[in-house]
């Protein structure tokens, strides 16, 4: 429970710091990035000008699907059904979708779907590589949720007739590793659809995002 609250807190802090900025409203001919209170400046400007787009950044979600939905709804990029409503918003997820929480694979699917939905209406969803994505690619599964591994084994092994081993952690780890091989969808996503860094925004408010 403590981890769940901390995940939400970290994400909201990142969201609150960045959601008020847009390339046009904040950087329209004035060096507003020199202001000492960027958040208040951005809020005031958006009250006076129509933004060309918003930039929303969300940090480590670590398999916490419930709070991921809460943060994305708070950011006004998804509705209660999990569908994209962010229009041309630029959403940046700065890595570490995986590990710790029990819904890492569902989070990967969620952000892949949101990327497609956003692009259909002029928005973008950029997911960066975090150290936990790299750990999975390197075969280091120390922080993968035991609950998720057991559920993965129980879901896949009975289909192969191996009901006695369903729920076994070792078999869960084996299946997890298989899902992230180059020829598998999750493995393909991490290898071809993730950057180490991203630059979003324009003029003085161009922002470099990395996983720290």
Automatic annotation (TrEMBL):
Residues 54-141 form the Calcineurin-like phosphoesterase domain. InterPro entries: Calcineurin-like_PHP, Metallo-depent_PP-like. Keywords: Signal. Residues 1-29 form the signal peptide. It holds the Pfam family Metallophos. This is Calcineurin-like phosphoesterase domain-containing protein. The keyword Signal applies. GO terms for molecular function: hydrolase activity.
């Amino acid at each position: 429970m403590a981890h769940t609250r901390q995940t939400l807190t970290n994400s909201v802090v990142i969201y609150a710091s960045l959601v008020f900025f847009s390339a046009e409203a904040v950087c329209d001919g004035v060096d507003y990035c020199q202001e000492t209170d960027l958040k208040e400046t951005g809020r005031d400007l958006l009250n006076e000008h129509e933004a060309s787009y918003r930039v929303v950044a969300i940090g480590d979600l670590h398999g916490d699907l419930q709070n991921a939905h809460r943060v994305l709804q708070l950011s006004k990029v998804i509705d209660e059904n999990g569908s994209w409503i962010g229009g041309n918003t630029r959403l940046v997820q700065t890595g570490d979708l995986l590990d710790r929480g029990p819904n890492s694979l569902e989070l990967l699917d969620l952000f892949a779907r949101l990327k497609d939905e956003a692009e259909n209406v002029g928005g973008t969803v950029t997911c960066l590589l975090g150290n936990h994505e790299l750990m999975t690619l390197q075969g280091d599964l120390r922080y993968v949720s035991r609950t998720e591994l057991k559920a993965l084994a129980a879901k896949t092994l009975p289909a192969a007739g191996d009901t006695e081993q369903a729920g076994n952690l070792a078999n869960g780890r084996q299946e997890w590793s298989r899902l992230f091989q180059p020829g598998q969808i999750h493995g393909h996503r991490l290898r071809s659809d993730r950057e180490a860094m991203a630059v979003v925004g324009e003029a003085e408010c161009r922002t470099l995002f990395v996983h720290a």
